Amino acid sequence: MIRLILRALIALCAAMAVYVSILSWRGARAKAKYNPEKLAQITEAIKKPQLNESETIPAIGEWPETELLANTSGFKLALRSWLRENPTGTVAWALSLESNERKSVVFSELIPMWMMLSPQECGEWLVSNQDQAFVEEGLLRAIVDRGNVSPYHGIKLALSLKKREWRAYTLEGIYLVWVEKRPEQAVSYLEDLAVLPEYENLVLLTFSTWGKNDFPKAYEWMANSKIKNKDELIRFVYLLHCENKPDQYLDWIFNSLEPEQRGAFLKTLMHKTFPKKERLILAKVKSLSNYKKDLCYGWIAVSLAGEKGQKYQEFLNKIRSTKEKENFKNLTYLKIANKNPAYLMSKLSVVELRELGDTRSLLLKEYAKRRPDDAFKWLKSETAKNLLRELIFYSQDDAVSGMTKNLQLSAYFVDNFPSEIKQKPIIDGLFNSSFLVAKRIYDDYLSTINDMFFEIIKHQIKKKGVKVARGSIRDQSLKDLYTSELLMHPNYTFTQESLKLFRGIENANMSKLVVNYLAWQVKGENASKFLDFAESHDLLNYSLVSVLLKKWSDFDQVKASKWLHNHSNSSWYIAVCANYSTHLIQNSIKKFIEFTKEIHPSKRNLYINKLTIVFSETSPELLAVLSEEFNVKKYLQTSNKEK
Description:
By secondary structure, the protein is mostly helical. It has four domains: 1-53, no CATH class; 57-181; 340-521, no CATH class; 540-643. Helices cover 74% and strands 0% of the residues. The longest helix has 31 residues, at 432-462.
């Protein structure tokens, strides 16, 4: 046996020597003696060295076990020869092997070889014997290899497999090669597999493989198909491959997509490819029309925004269209606002901040989140009010309201900042529509300021700097807003100092807002004290009393009910009684009836009417438990009018 292997090696060396000598010959001499077919045969001999023709192949199965288990090249050559001469005998020998380890090694090579030599016979055998544990590796390789030669036969074999993971593996392996070679033929057959659970993966594999080589044609197929989620697939495959040939993808964007679709793809292309292939992209952009150049330069600027330096500005300046330049400037600022808000806040004037539109709110919030100390200084400065003045003034139409009225209206909102504004100011000739537009701008701005304070206070609580920070605010209205936001902040812990802070709020609306918020935090046993405190500061209202009475009644219903009846002259009494009754009746009908008996006769009809409204809107089923003295039927006929 050793002699046999040595002779094979000697034959291999001789073949290599001949091949090297052939490559050194030139011109007609080489062509006259060796044709291309002969050279190909010699090359193949180097790749797959064969045994010397004078040597005989051992009988089937007569091969050293050590080489069999090692799966040597010599064993593979012998196995191939056995299959050519006697496939039935070879398979029978392989099946007779006792060790599963030997069978797995042998069948991992035998099945692919047999499939190439006798595909029909091997395929039939595989379908019948696929349950055998030792065939897996060879089976998978054989079906994929067969599919590479004959996709239709390979797919037929794949579909005959019982194990879903085997079927998925072989189908994907076949399609991977088929799409590379003949994509149109592959996709034409794909629809026949639509009922398979592997279909979606095959679609993605097909589109991705074809798209890598020829995205425009792959896109045309996908765009015209009936495949679900094709828009998502297009974006995914585009994202996967666009950086390979960005200049060609630019052509595709402008030649294949509608104008409204181009932005998202240009944004992705420039973000992924411009830093790596700047020269290639810029060379391509120079060949485009002015309109297309503006779009490309704009998205290049956006891709560079937020990075070190101001290179994005160079590309913004290249945009010729004023409208497009303004649009892309806002987009670059939006990106910078997310990455480096402090830089943008230091760069922009009040006028530029006003022109930012929706980006402005995001910028201010991010500024407070990332640079809370600087944002706090900005809020205390006149800049915050000046920006509000600009926003209100330029929200108005001069042709409708006139400049003088605009100045008066903006001054009104600035003077009342940051208090809540409900009433229209007395300005001669001011239209209600003008006031409503200005109020919407004001409310949006105030909401942003509140969000800024939330982030700033969270930082100051963590750093234990609340007292110093509050003391640094000179404007009383701004201090009231800060204090109210502080007392309602989820990170704030109440102390003895909290009451003093609350009493320092001069704005009545803010005080009520804080008290109503705090009412939800109070426990039942402390409800009476909180109500006394709220009453002493003239802060009682429907929402506050309703919340606290429900908590108090769970702790002491008798005292809670008595307190409410003692306030029968309050404007909120009837409404609170009706709301409180829904809580009582769900806990105890007896307690509910006892409570209603204490209502003064002069207020009884008003109470019944209000109670019926509350029950019909929130708990209609409770109407059934009311006694006849509650004239529900009569009231329901007129309830809509009385509402």
